[in-house]
Amino acid sequence: MPTCPLNPKVKDVLENPIEINSKQGYYTNFVNLADLAGLAIPNTFRADGLPVGVTLLYAENAAKDFRPSPGQITELSFPSWARVDGWAEKGTIISTEYDPTVAKIIVHGRNREETLRKLRKALEETNVGGIITNKDYLLAVSQSDMFKSIKMHTKVLDSFSFKPPVFEVLVPGSNTSIQ
């Protein structure tokens, strides 16, 4: 059962992984945790934990401006070694009327490089059938030079070029069959 790093007597309050601000080294989402635990955040609290890699698997079509991808999940599996927080399972019907989050995939590593390797491996081992997800997009971003070299800013994904490994049938002929 997880405990609060500020007060080990407070149990089961770490609902989400703690994100680390790499420049300052302080826990950045500790405000919510401290509120839950009724604690004040000391200015000297440092993040000495392992790097955390978190990605959100969405039922969205990256090739179509990230529109929701409704449908029924026919297959769903995640690597057993990664932490996966989610609600969906085989048979779940994804609607366009609700949040399209399928799962949050979380890994830890000794350093950024190891964490990124594990995150990519977790994505590669994730299998979703029946709906379109952003999995290929997440893999492409995580393998990009700008991501690996941490040349990031708030608008960097606006210029990221993603070419999904798919094709689209615009006008099917009478004998069209896609396997």
Note down, in words, how this protein is organized.
Keywords: ATP-binding, Biotin, Ligase, Nucleotide-binding. With 179 residues, this protein is α+β, with helices and mostly antiparallel strands. The chain folds into 2 domains: 11-49, no CATH class; 52-152, 2-Layer Sandwich (D-amino Acid Aminotransferase, Chain A, domain 1). 20% of the residues lie in helices and 18% in strands. The protein has 4 helices and 9 strands; from the N terminus they run H-E-E-E-E-E-E-E-E-H-E-H-H. The strands form 4 sheets. It has a 3-stranded antiparallel β-sheet. Helix 2 (112-125) packs antiparallel against helix 3 (135-143). The longest helix has 14 residues, at 112-125. The protein starts with 29 loop residues before the first helix and ends in a 31-residue tail after the last helix.
Task: Summarize the helices and strands and which ones pair or pack.
Layout: H1 30-37, E1 52-58, E2 60-61, E3 67-68, E4 71-72, E5 75-77, E6 83-86, E7 93-94, E8 101-108, H2 112-125, E9 127-129, H3 135-143, H4 145-148
Antiparallel strand pairs: 1-8, 2-3, 4-7, 5-9, 6-8
Helix pairs in contact: 2-3
Care to count the β-strands? 9
CATH architecture of the largest domain: 2-Layer Sandwich
Let me know the CATH homologous superfamily of the largest domain. ATP-grasp fold, B domain
Q: Roughly what is the average pLDDT, rounded to an integer?
A: 74
**Structural category:** alpha+beta
Specify the helix fraction band: 10-25%
Spatial extent as radius of gyration? 19 Å
